[in-house]
Amino acid sequence: MKSPDEVLREGELEKRSDSLFQLWKKKRGVLTSDRLSLFPASPRARPKELRFHSILKVDCVERTGKYVYFTIVTTDHKEIDFRCAGESCWNAAIALALIDFQNRRALQDFRSRQERTAPAALAAPAEAAEAAVAAAASEPSGPSPQPKPRTP
């Protein structure tokens, strides 16, 4: 299993700004198993992180001669547009890392549900056995008395 800090891919991609002119800004992307970090061109600025638990999907892939355009949709349905050089395959790398993250999370959820229900499932047969023993102990031993026939 990969550690969350292990870099899966690193390189250049461009993010469309939210400003009025929607300019493409070059970023250095660092993809790990649980997030995409975007470092701006200026070294002083802090990176922006898109954690996979807040990403719904990678969507809307379009190829032109030079670029691949794709959109990351967040859990609050915000769309963030990116483009990268056609041969860099950033969209595929992000999509695969996101699927891997979602699969790991689903497996963890399943295991935690099993662990919560397993003690109850193990206790149920033991409780049933105890109840049967208690019921048997409360019954009188020996044959049960026969009712007397009624005479008219």
Automatic annotation (TrEMBL):
<dbReference type="GO" id="GO:0005737">
    <property type="term" value="C:cytoplasm"/>
</dbReference>
<dbReference type="GO" id="GO:0010468">
    <property type="term" value="P:regulation of gene expression"/>
</dbReference>
<dbReference type="GO" id="GO:0045995">
    <property type="term" value="P:regulation of embryonic development"/>
</dbReference>
<feature type="compositionally biased region" description="Pro residues">
    <location>
        <begin position="142"/>
        <end position="152"/>
    </location>
</feature>
<protein>
    <recommendedName>
        <fullName>Pleckstrin homology-like domain family A member 2</fullName>
    </recommendedName>
</protein>
<dbReference type="GO" id="GO:0070873">
    <property type="term" value="P:regulation of glycogen metabolic process"/>
</dbReference>
<feature type="domain" description="PH">
    <location>
        <begin position="7"/>
        <end position="101"/>
    </location>
</feature>
<keyword id="KW-0472">Membrane</keyword>
<dbReference type="GO" id="GO:0009887">
    <property type="term" value="P:animal organ morphogenesis"/>
</dbReference>
<dbReference type="GO" id="GO:0001890">
    <property type="term" value="P:placenta development"/>
</dbReference>
<comment type="function">
    <text>Plays a role in regulating placenta growth. May act via its PH domain that competes with other PH domain-containing proteins, thereby preventing their binding to membrane lipids.</text>
</comment>
<feature type="region of interest" description="Disordered">
    <location>
        <begin position="132"/>
        <end position="152"/>
    </location>
</feature>
<dbReference type="GO" id="GO:0016020">
    <property type="term" value="C:membrane"/>
</dbReference>
<dbReference type="InterPro" id="IPR011993">
    <property type="entry name" value="PH-like_dom_sf"/>
</dbReference>
<dbReference type="GO" id="GO:0043065">
    <property type="term" value="P:positive regulation of apoptotic process"/>
</dbReference>
<dbReference type="InterPro" id="IPR042832">
    <property type="entry name" value="PHLA1/2/3"/>
</dbReference>
<feature type="compositionally biased region" description="Low complexity">
    <location>
        <begin position="132"/>
        <end position="141"/>
    </location>
</feature>
<dbReference type="InterPro" id="IPR001849">
    <property type="entry name" value="PH_domain"/>
</dbReference>
<comment type="similarity">
    <text>Belongs to the PHLDA2 family.</text>
</comment>
<keyword id="KW-0963">Cytoplasm</keyword>
<dbReference type="GO" id="GO:1901981">
    <property type="term" value="F:phosphatidylinositol phosphate binding"/>
</dbReference>
<dbReference type="GO" id="GO:0030334">
    <property type="term" value="P:regulation of cell migration"/>
</dbReference>
